[in-house]
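Incident review: delayed structure delivery

Summary: a single-chain prediction request sat in the queue longer than the usual turnaround. Root cause was a stuck worker, restarted by the on-call engineer. No data loss occurred. The affected request and its eventual output are reproduced below so the record is complete for anyone auditing the incident later.

Affected input:
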Amino acid sequence: QVQLVESGGGLVQAGGSLRLSCTASGRTFSTVGMGWFRQAPGKEREFAAAITSSGGSTYYADSVKGRFTISRDNTKNTGYLQMNSLKPEDTAVYYCAATNPYSSPYIFRTPGGYPYWGQGTQVTVSS
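Output delivered after worker restart:
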């Protein structure tokens, strides 16, 4: 079992930055892959970014590539999503999730590939 708690969401103006954190407990953090997903009102949950257990590989949705950076510190059991150049369309509830460390790139991009989820944190970008 893995418990995940997100933090760092808030209200920011377009062009601004936020850093989300995801703190894990219950299982050695270095043994799970991690992803960030987001869900806007009335829309399906969508993939934003993912990182393998060692941090050696990262994956991004086209919509955030070049603006968001995913990272992790396994010594602190914490993952991060640095979000720069934020746009109003980035407004959503952001969720972190944990998955098998040997997942394929396809699984990393798929919500169904993650058995463990945090409760989400709201990010609102004003224009």
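Verification: The helical segments are 105-108.
Action items: add queue-age alerting; document worker restart procedure.
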